[in-house]
Predict the 3D structure of the following.
Amino acid sequence: MKIGSLIKKIRTIRGLTQVQLAQKMGITQNYLSLIETDKKKPSNTKIKELSNHLQLSEDALIFLSTEPPDELDQYKKRDYVGLQHNILSLLVFDLTGDIEGKSA
Protein backbone atom coordinates (compact mmCIF):
# COMPACT_ATOMS: atom_id res chain seq x y z
CA MET A 1 0.00 0.00 0.00
CA LYS A 2 1.37 3.41 -0.88
CA ILE A 3 2.10 5.75 2.00
CA GLY A 4 -0.63 8.21 1.04
CA SER A 5 -3.33 5.53 1.00
CA LEU A 6 -2.09 4.19 4.31
CA ILE A 7 -2.13 7.64 5.91
CA LYS A 8 -5.68 8.23 4.68
CA LYS A 9 -6.84 4.82 5.93
CA ILE A 10 -5.40 5.33 9.42
CA ARG A 11 -6.61 8.96 9.56
CA THR A 12 -10.18 7.93 8.75
CA ILE A 13 -10.07 5.04 11.22
CA ARG A 14 -8.90 7.51 13.87
CA GLY A 15 -11.93 9.68 13.00
CA LEU A 16 -9.90 12.65 11.83
CA THR A 17 -10.72 14.84 8.85
CA GLN A 18 -7.99 16.10 6.57
CA VAL A 19 -8.53 19.58 8.03
CA GLN A 20 -8.12 18.33 11.61
CA LEU A 21 -4.94 16.38 10.89
CA ALA A 22 -3.48 19.19 8.79
CA GLN A 23 -4.14 21.70 11.59
CA LYS A 24 -2.47 19.43 14.15
CA MET A 25 0.57 19.21 11.89
CA GLY A 26 0.67 22.87 10.94
CA ILE A 27 0.24 22.18 7.22
CA THR A 28 -2.54 22.99 4.78
CA GLN A 29 -5.35 20.59 4.04
CA ASN A 30 -4.34 20.82 0.37
CA TYR A 31 -0.80 19.65 1.17
CA LEU A 32 -2.17 16.72 3.20
CA SER A 33 -4.48 15.87 0.30
CA LEU A 34 -1.47 15.79 -2.04
CA ILE A 35 0.30 13.42 0.37
CA GLU A 36 -2.74 11.15 0.66
CA THR A 37 -3.08 10.93 -3.12
CA ASP A 38 0.66 10.21 -3.46
CA LYS A 39 1.25 13.37 -5.47
CA LYS A 40 3.69 14.61 -2.81
CA LYS A 41 6.06 12.46 -0.78
CA PRO A 42 6.26 13.52 2.86
CA SER A 43 9.68 14.36 4.24
CA ASN A 44 11.15 12.22 7.00
CA THR A 45 10.16 14.94 9.48
CA LYS A 46 6.55 14.89 8.21
CA ILE A 47 6.47 11.09 8.37
CA LYS A 48 7.53 11.30 12.01
CA GLU A 49 4.85 13.93 12.72
CA LEU A 50 2.21 11.92 10.86
CA SER A 51 3.04 8.78 12.80
CA ASN A 52 2.83 10.69 16.09
CA HIS A 53 -0.52 12.29 15.27
CA LEU A 54 -1.93 9.00 13.92
CA GLN A 55 -0.63 7.12 16.98
CA LEU A 56 1.23 4.65 14.80
CA SER A 57 4.90 3.81 15.03
CA GLU A 58 7.08 5.41 12.40
CA ASP A 59 8.56 1.99 11.63
CA ALA A 60 5.11 0.51 11.00
CA LEU A 61 4.12 3.39 8.75
CA ILE A 62 7.29 2.98 6.69
CA PHE A 63 7.21 -0.84 6.56
CA LEU A 64 3.56 -0.98 5.54
CA SER A 65 4.14 1.47 2.70
CA THR A 66 7.41 0.03 1.34
CA GLU A 67 7.65 -2.11 -1.76
CA PRO A 68 9.40 -5.47 -1.30
CA PRO A 69 13.16 -5.21 -1.90
CA ASP A 70 14.24 -6.01 -5.46
CA GLU A 71 16.73 -8.62 -4.31
CA LEU A 72 13.94 -10.89 -3.04
CA ASP A 73 12.74 -13.66 -5.32
CA GLN A 74 9.07 -13.77 -6.30
CA TYR A 75 8.15 -16.12 -3.45
CA LYS A 76 9.80 -13.99 -0.79
CA LYS A 77 8.21 -10.87 -2.30
CA ARG A 78 4.85 -12.59 -2.00
CA ASP A 79 5.62 -13.43 1.63
CA TYR A 80 6.72 -9.83 2.28
CA VAL A 81 3.45 -8.45 0.88
CA GLY A 82 1.52 -11.09 2.83
CA LEU A 83 3.23 -9.99 6.04
CA GLN A 84 2.37 -6.36 5.29
CA HIS A 85 -1.26 -7.33 4.73
CA ASN A 86 -1.41 -9.33 7.97
CA ILE A 87 0.10 -6.48 9.99
CA LEU A 88 -2.31 -3.99 8.43
CA SER A 89 -5.25 -6.29 9.17
CA LEU A 90 -4.14 -6.58 12.81
CA LEU A 91 -3.74 -2.81 13.03
CA VAL A 92 -7.22 -2.22 11.60
CA PHE A 93 -8.66 -4.82 13.96
CA ASP A 94 -6.88 -3.21 16.92
CA LEU A 95 -8.28 0.22 16.02
CA THR A 96 -11.80 -0.78 15.02
CA GLY A 97 -12.57 -4.30 16.17
CA ASP A 98 -13.24 -5.10 12.51
CA ILE A 99 -11.11 -6.97 10.03
CA GLU A 100 -11.03 -5.08 6.74
CA GLY A 101 -14.44 -3.55 7.31
CA LYS A 102 -16.17 -6.79 8.34
CA SER A 103 -17.93 -6.63 11.68
CA ALA A 104 -16.43 -8.65 14.50
Observations:
- The chain is about 65% helix and 0% strand.
- The chain has a mean pLDDT of 91.
- The first helix runs from residue 3 to 13.
